[in-house]
Amino acid sequence: MLINLWYVAEWSKSVGNEPVRVKMLGQNFVLFRDTEGKAHCLSDVCLHRGGSLGGGWTKDNCVVCPYHGWRYSGDGKVAYVPSEGDDFKAPKRARIDSYPVEERYGMIWVFLGDLPEEERFPIPPCDEFGDAAWRMLSSEFTWKAEAARVVENGIDIAHASFVHPMFGKPESAQENHILEVDSGEWWGRSKNMQYPPKFKENWYRKRMRKEGQPTNTHPCWYLPGMVARIRIDINKSMAIVMFDANTPVDEHTTRTFALQFRSFLKFRIFDAGSLKRLNRILEEDATIVEAAAPNYLPDALANEMSVTDDKFMRTFRAARRKCIEERGWKIDVAEANKAKGVKVLNIPSPARRSEDMSWIIDTVPLVPARKSAVAGHKKSA
Fold it and tell me: Residue 286: which H helix or E strand, with range?
């Protein structure tokens, strides 16, 4: 699991007047909205006696701890302590970690790390969102698998011939091939030619694609959000786009926030069938990915064998490995697990770099970088 990336914490519609407790990167957080509707994300633990802020309520633009009523503002500072009265001024160190929040695509994105804004990789684009040319559906799925494994599965074109009868067949596996690959520090995309079977469900779907007709597919990966995206051009006038943000709940659980867009059959009556097919695809993938060994994606390639069809996935592995080896962003899960039930740990927030003060709660341990960090990031994709 990597820090210093944007992750989807929750659907926007799921955070209203009451605080919402969520788990990401093995740690607990609280989401709440102020009176203007702006979403905030804080560490879930009250400094006083460890109460869960997610079990509290909101008041005066603050989240209130249900244990002793301490209030925390959106920047994580203690704003009020009932037992001390109105004249009490909390010391500078009386604060918890507060994380940058953006709402995009109907989701609440939270930056989990301490990088200043100018050094952060951006939230991935999703140009179809809000475009009337596309019909959008949303769904959610939980995997018993590590997020990096889930992302790699989402961009692996070769597995479709064996895992997804809707998109492939074993006898055409050798015909499928990669046409182009391009990648940057935090993104990658490719273009592929595939030969899926003819649609057979009904008379209309049969007309979408002829037997043996090639299909262009365009998978992408993005480190922010651990996003896997794929566009499937069924024919010249019909396309499907799947945009999946894969949030690591912990080292072996992933919560997927899925958006599906289609450029055809845009009436609501066709939504149920589209959702059924989307969930079928996720279930087919989960059957394979959850049984894969090891559970974690290897940091290097030495213990797995790769072939030509894996060259696009290697761009994802290389970018992820740079975050681990050069930037030191990987959580040391083994060390962090030693603190469970004994000591609270937080994901570091930007304030830890910008403000000179001592903090009451320590941060999660990280795997030390093996190489000198690379200065600056390319932000275009």
Answer: helix 271-289
Cis before 294 (ω within 30)? yes
Pairing type for strands 227-233 and 239-250 reads antiparallel
Q: Are 194 and 174 in contact (CB under 8 A)?
A: no
Token digits of residue 78: 């203690």
Q: Find out whether 250 and 340 touch, Cβ atoms under 8 Å.
A: no
Residue 164 banded pLDDT, cuts 50, 70, 90: confident
How far apart CA 275 and CA 139 sit, in angstroms, is 8
Judge contact between 361 and 47, C-beta under 8 A: yes
Nearest to 332 by CA among 42, 99, 3, 96: 3
> By percentage, how much of the chain surpasses pLDDT 90?
70
Band of pLDDT at residue 157, cut at 50, 70 and 90: confident
pLDDT at 246 over 50: yes
How many angstroms separate the Cα of 47 from the Cα of each of 9, 72, 98, 360? 22, 10, 13, 7
User: Strands 362-363 and 345-346, how do they pair?
Assistant: parallel
Rounded mean pLDDT, 315-336: 96
